[in-house]
Specification:
7-stranded mixed sheet; about 625 residues; 5-stranded antiparallel sheet; Peptidase
């Protein structure tokens, strides 16, 4: 008989009251967790995020208008204001505040006043979500007044006329390549404006205006203002009078000799390295820097169209902005013989009385070199070789010096590295041979100033070291940084980089340089009543497609018995009756230095000159430094 199946037990369930208690407990725990999370979030917002929300609220409740600060002013050493600021006005619009029924009228009227495209202006005004759009940067007072009168007469709101500031150069193109200019944002683009941009830039101010949730200015609004602070100013080593002397003389020389690749002039204090004048001619007006001021270059650009014109215009602008005295490299030609001569005398490789012979030509490793115009100077001392600018003699001097010593002095005179002048765009290095790459032919051509390329400023600074006792001074342009009230904030002292040659060598070089002016190719640099020393140069542009392209240069120092002022003048590609530096550039140096010496109150000395010496000078050749190589 089968076993009966067991009766299943009934399921055990919680009593209804216990279930409800548990549900309530879970609900309470969930509420506690949520409340704790909310409390923690609220605590975080109050303690750590309050500033962020405050800024957002202020951003919705306030509209800020920047008040541009004036840039620091720039003065010459004698107090002439060179760069200042002038008031102007920037025009902006708030389309959402403009009457909808007057948008077309506003676009038509403002387009005519501001010389803008009416259709594009109407498109801007039709964007009713916009609270700000630019109409025109930095317009003059008459334009701002015309806009104000038009809006008031026609009941047009939403047009804002904000006072602004723009850079102004009271002297026009005077010292343009040194000063540089600023862009539409008043930031420096070139020259001192770029180099000292952080110093010259002031702290902008701001005006805060209350607005409602839609961005409209409240009728009962309030304004708070942070006053703008003007930037620091500069006092330069540039003397405005000496700068005028240099620019006027260079401008005349460029026109007289039809200089096609611009001219460079530098005047320096030989004992401190202070730049007293610097010019690249033709220049431009920094008030309108994008206008091409060289008539020939402007005509060439205007003759083109389309992309070709745009490229030519950009190149012409970059060329006229370029400070050639600092940024360009050139073959110095026979002016460089001063460096070779100083190095050879300083090492003892030659003495003042050493003699050399100049014949029809000289052969160096199978390469023949001639003197300029195939001249034969015969036997001559070092002084006479410098007077005659004899290539063959200086090839022999360079050989006695040797390539190792030549390269060492080349570097010691600062011709391998930037001068460190406080201007932008100075090349990081010049082009030169190192001793391991220099053969006999390269040493020969470098000895008389070819085959190396250095900057005009490097050449000027090196000659300063030749005559000032042998000290290489760092060229500089800013003597003081000024507070906005004109008081001195920081004074910049001269910097001596190193002693290059002995004082005795420098004294000998001064005597020889004076002989060049009295009896040699530099006689056009003579100044009545003053002792002058100098050296001419006429260098071939070896990288030019024009084999006849030359740079006519001259460097002069006065008074040579107590050196104070150096003047270097270089005419790049003159087209005149000659290309000789002693004929074209020496008179420019003489004019600038004579005016400078008189202006500085240095008295003239009576100079006795016999009829015989006058006749001797008349019989000498005009110049002996033209390149006539292989």
């Amino acid at each position: 008989m089968p076993k009966p199946e067991p009766t299943p037990r009934p399921l055990r369930t919680l009593p209804e009251r216990a279930f409800r208690a548990r549900a309530r407990l879970v609900a309470v725990l969930m509420c506690c967790i949520c409340f704790a999370g909310l409390a923690a979030r609220l605590l975080y917002l109050q303690l750590f995020s309050g500033g962020w929300y405050t800024d957002r609220a202020l951003g919705q409740q306030l509209r800020d208008t920047v008040v541009p600060a004036d840039r620091g002013r720039i003065y010459s050493a004698d107090g002439v204001l060179l760069a200042a600021n002038s008031s102007c006005w920037t025009l902006r619009a708030s389309p959402r505040e403009m009457p909808a029924d007057k948008l077309e009228l506003a676009a038509r009227g403002l387009a005519k006043i501001l010389e803008l495209d009416e259709a594009k202006l109407l498109e801007k005004f039709s964007d009713r979500a916009s609270n700000d759009c630019l109409l025109r940067y930095r317009v003059e007072r008459d334009t701002a007044d015309a806009v104000r009168d038009f809006c008031e007469a026609n009941g047009i709101t939403g047009i804002r006329i904000n006072q602004d500031s723009k850079r102004w150069y009271p002297q026009g193109e005077f010292l343009a390549s040194v000063l540089g200019f600023t862009n539409v944002d008043n930031a420096g683009v070139s020259g001192l404006e770029l180099k000292y941009n952080d110093v010259l830039t002031g702290d902008n101010g701001v005006v805060l205006t209350a607005v409602n949730a839609w961005g409209y200015t409240l009728e009962q609004s309030y304004e708070t203002e942070k006053v703008p602070l003007e930037g620091s100013g500069l006092r330069l080593t540039i003397d405005a009078n000496i700068q005028h002397y240099l620019e006027n003389a260079l401008d005349y020389a460029v026109k007289e000799h039809h200089v096609s690749a611009r001219a460079v002039g530098i005047v320096m204090d030989v004992n401190t390295g202070a730049v007293l004048a610097m010019s690249t001619t033709p220049a431009y007006d920094p008030n309108e820097p994008r206008v091409i001021y060289d008539s020939a270059a402007r005509s060439a650009v205007d003759a083109l169209t389309g992309d070709a014109r745009a490229a030519a215009l950009q190149l012409a602008q970059q060329t006229q902005w370029r400070n050639k005295a600092v940024s360009d490299l050139y073959e110095p030609g026979s002016v460089f013989k001063l460096i070779t001569c100083a190095a050879a005398l300083d090492t003892g490789a030659v003495s003042k009385h050493s003699t050399f012979y100049c014949g029809e030509s000289i052969s160096v490793a199978g390469t023949r070199f001639h003197c300029a115009n195939r001249k034969r100077h015969g036997s001559q001392t070092v002084t006479q070789a410098l007077e005659n600018s004899c290539n063959q003699s200086f090839i022999q001097i360079g050989a006695r010096l040797g390539k190792e010593a030549f390269c060492d002095y080349f570097a010691a005179f600062g011709l391998r590295e930037p001068t460190g002048i406080d201007l932008p765009a100075e090349p990081k290095k010049s082009l030169y041979y190192t001793a391991d790459r220099m053969g006999p032919v390269e040493l020969a051509s470098c000895s008389f100033g070819q085959s190396s390329k250095i900057s005009y400023l490097e050449m000027a600074a090196a000659v300063c070291a030749v005559v000032n006792g042998g000290r290489l001074m760092q060229p500089y342009l800013v003597s003081d940084i000024l507070n906005p009230d004109g008081t001195t904030l920081q004074h910049i002292d001269p910097v001596c980089k190193r002693q290059v040659i002995k004082a005795e060598t420098s004294a000998t070089m001064r005597e020889m340089m004076e002989a060049v002016v009295l009896y040699g190719g530099g006689r056009n640099a003579q100044i009545a009543g003053y002792r002058v020393g100098g050296k001419s140069g006429t260098s071939q542009k070896l990288d030019s497609a024009d084999e006849k392209a030359r740079i006519a240069s001259f460097v002069a120092v006065a008074p040579i018995d107590d050196p104070q002022f150096l003047c270097l003048v270089c005419l790049d590609e003159p087209h005149s009756w000659t290309t000789a530096g002693g004929s074209l550039s020496a008179p420019v140096c003489a004019e600038v230095l004579e005016q400078t010496l008189v202006y500085k109150g240095i008295p003239r000395a009576a100079m006795e000159e016999s009829a015989d010496s006058a006749q001797t000078l008349a019989d000498l050749p005009a110049d002996g430094d033209s390149f006539d190589g292989v």
